[in-house]
Amino acid sequence: MIDKVAWIRLENGRILSTRSHGKSVYYIPGGKRESGESDTDTLVREIREELDVTITSASTTHVGTFQAQAHGHPNGTTVRMTCYAADYEGTLTPSSEIAEVIWLTYQDRGSVSPVDQLIFDHLHEQALLD
Ligand SMILES: Nc1nc2c([nH]c(=O)n2[C@H]2C[C@H](O)[C@@H](COP(=O)(O)OP(=O)(O)OP(=O)(O)O)O2)c(=O)[nH]1
């Protein structure tokens, strides 16, 4: 089980997503918990690493926890994404490992990983994602 914390950032009915160099599938920003870290610790650290902005810890709101086959891993490897909405400070600036930052809608569901498809379904049902 891969344990990840992810940032659900919705603006104008679109969700902030990233694509790493050499990949064709978009990911919701976030990453793996390191030992002893809280959800918020992981979220703040990973989002600073990926996008050079500071998540406002006090604003984090749990959106849901979703799990599915981990993209790019052998069959049977599961990724669990604990998802939070949160405000941030700074200017979104992709790190060198990120090729593209993009705002996706539900129409892009076919271009995201299996766990993100579950998240897209949830957000669309809640009328948060266009
Ligand atoms: N961040 C993120 N990871 C995702 C998403 N969807 C999805 O299947 N994953 C998967 C991809 C990998 O199969 C799995 C774990 O990735 P990995 O173990 O290769 O992660 P990594 O070394 O790059 O670690 P990290 O930077 O994310 O902490 O997480 C997503 O939307 N966002």
TrEMBL record:
Cited InterPro entries: MutT-like (IPR047127), NUDIX_hydrolase-like_dom_sf (IPR015797), NUDIX_hydrolase_CS (IPR020084), NUDIX_hydrolase_dom (IPR000086)
EC number: 3.6.1.55
Cofactors demanded by this protein: Mg(2+)
Domain named Nudix hydrolase: residues: 1-128
BP terms from Gene Ontology: DNA repair; DNA replication
CDD domains (UniProt xref): NUDIX_Hydrolase
Classification via Gene3D superfamilies: Nucleoside Triphosphate Pyrophosphohydrolase
Catalytic activity: 8-oxo-dGTP + H2O = 8-oxo-dGMP + diphosphate + H(+)
A GO term for molecular function: 8-oxo-7,8-dihydrodeoxyguanosine triphosphate pyrophosphatase activity
Coiled coil regions in record: none
Record keywords: DNA damage, DNA repair, DNA replication, Hydrolase, Magnesium, Metal-binding, Mutator protein
Record has DNA damage as a keyword: yes
Family, per entry: Belongs to the Nudix hydrolase family.
Name of the featured protein: 8-oxo-dGTP diphosphatase
